[in-house]
Amino acid sequence: MTEIVVVVLNYKTPDLAVQAAQSAARGMSGYSGAILLVDNDSPDNSFQRMQDAVLAADWPAHLNVQVLQSGHNGGFGAGNNFGIRAGLAICPQADYVYVLNPDACVDDTTISALVDYLEARPKVAFAGSWIYGDDGEDHCSAFRLPGLASEFESATRFGPVTRLLKSYVLPLHIPETSGPVGWVVGASFLARTSVLEEIGLFDETFFLYFEETDICLRAHRAGYEVHFVRESRTCHIGSVSTGLGTWERTPTYWFDSRWYYYSKNYGRSYAVAATVLSAIGTAFWRLRRRLEGKPNTDAHRHLRDMIAHAAKAVFRPTPKTAIRKMTALPKTALQPSLD
């Protein structure tokens, strides 16, 4: 039987995390494995609430369900890595790792559609689902890998530029068919364990954002493919714990992740060029917006903050990568809530 480790990483959304885990359990009827709810050192009583909820709920007997405490909020990548490595201690022969956001719920066939897809395509390392909101609206689920052209296109928000650079437009929205893409979102993300063993887990230098993009790029560079799977659907409330889309001001960690992604993978000069092109495009958009009387949709001081961040980052060393290998955590570090 195919064995899967499911990781649901929580930060201050314990009730949603348990609901996500329960939906995954319903989709695991044909698979063995473990479901790990990892609290990423939430400053509330999330860990206790998840413990109580898991103990009170009915779970399939063939699944090992655990609530774990990471003990340190190192971000999305670090928290999921903790869960993945803990899962290896429980299921050392796991075929796949499935990462599910705490504010997401899967259909009964979501996981099986991803597994069946990868089983039939050995060169596909990672697969992502069709994401939709609780209002039924589709969410952008697949993307091209970002670069200089996409930075300029997305910043200008100008039809003629978009048509000229159509092959570099970052969001692919909902592709009409399943197939290869640059990267997929981590809300519903199935990874082949053998590939993680080869390229490593998430780079923990990223606190939040760009970590999925980075691991997908590493898979591409290792000769694998990343695919969007239209047959797999996941409902995602969307960024409940991070506040994406409601920022009054873009947080520093977003700029940190963006700069690190470019400088790590393409060099410092490339990161500078990406920032310059984004700044030029944003300045053009602001001029056109004022002339046409359009509202400002950017976070407050976004352009100035991006330029100020880059001006400081260019004189700092590029942070060292923190890519963990596929090794199990010692059992003493797991702190399980259930025997």
From TrEMBL:
<dbReference type="GO" id="GO:0016740">
    <property type="term" value="F:transferase activity"/>
</dbReference>
<dbReference type="InterPro" id="IPR029044">
    <property type="entry name" value="Nucleotide-diphossugar_trans"/>
</dbReference>
<feature type="domain" description="Glycosyltransferase 2-like">
    <location>
        <begin position="14"/>
        <end position="142"/>
    </location>
</feature>
<dbReference type="InterPro" id="IPR001173">
    <property type="entry name" value="Glyco_trans_2-like"/>
</dbReference>
<dbReference type="Pfam" id="PF00535">
    <property type="entry name" value="Glycos_transf_2"/>
</dbReference>
<protein>
    <submittedName>
        <fullName>Glycosyltransferase, GT2 family</fullName>
    </submittedName>
</protein>
<keyword id="KW-0808">Transferase</keyword>
